[in-house]
Design a protein that fits this description.
409 residues; Butyryl-CoA Dehydrogenase, subunit A, domain 2
Amino acid sequence: MAAPNCGYDYESGCKSEMTANTPRDFAQEDLAPIRESVRALCADFPGEYWRRLDRERAYPEEFVTALTKAGFLAALIPEEYGGSGLTMTAAAAIMEEIQASGCNGAACHAQMYTMGTLLRHGSAEQKKRYLPAIARGELRLQAFGVTEPTSGTDTLSLRTTAMRDGDHYIVNGQKIWTSRAEHSDLMLLLARTTPREQTTSRTAGLTVFLVDMRAARGNALTIRPIRTMMNHATTEVFFENLRVPADGVIGREGEGFRYILSGMNAERILIAAECIGDAKWFIEKATAYAGERVVFGRPIGQNQGIQFPIARAYIGMRAAELMVREAAALYEAGRDCGAEANMAKHLAAEASWAAADMCVQTHGGFGFAEEFDIERKFRETRLYTVAPISTNLVLSYIAEHVLGLPRSY
């Protein structure tokens, strides 16, 4: 997007006398072809496509198929398994560009962040069995079964159990807000394998399973859609004596909470990148409209009452973008990025929501008109200040783990 009188490029920055000779961020420069390819693909799915799906609450099957065929959803799968073998920074750029193009990556982003748990903790046999088929688009790993109705974000209090029975586990329980379960072949499931009162630590006793849902649907596994304010394809999932082979355990039994945390960091980084993309979309829309809309004989963008909120949204977006990049770099280096991933998600979600509110305000009544796409994106981006982790839990994490304050919950 080009800002007026600046020739601004989001990747290179304004070329003033102070910065013209500053070396570029070559890691970001290398992503330019990827960004261009994503934008080109997204151009085939304009606003009218998303408006139709939004009205029908339908899944963007054609869009997800196109992303799969282009290899974007296999970005984090190593080349030896048929993937692209890209970095977290590259994956974040893909998701950012999807949102900045006016599309909605929520239909498929889980396939990227669930890869972290499987790649880092899965066995060689599991990777060989599933990753090539996922990379080819023959299997979808889009479902992440963690949250439950009674425990919410208190993951350690989940009640879904998986009890060993010979060479299988018997799963019983319920998950909620399990998005894309209807459109996924596999699910990454967190269940309790040891009763809480029998564990040696509060984080022990939870196990991660890779569940093949295809044969179980309508039998031991029931999926019920939940209609929400936006087209998000989320569900609640019921398990009734679901038999899962023991070789579906990822890593070691009882250590699943630690494995899930690494996946959650990836989730937060990628969704933060999506929020950056959303913010850029809103800012671009508002800037263009403010420059074109003439009231009282002059463009409304000439008024500080219009300029300042747009500028404030831009500043917030840029600051959040830097934190997203830092979190992604730490993740790639294999370093602890819990604080940075949480801060990136928080800042980016707040930035996108502020930009959304500003964009509606800038457009006035037209901001509520379906054909402008603003009200749709407004509803979609509102989700991320609540999920996948709420603002309050991010602040609690930073207070305890960064600032050293007493645990508040």
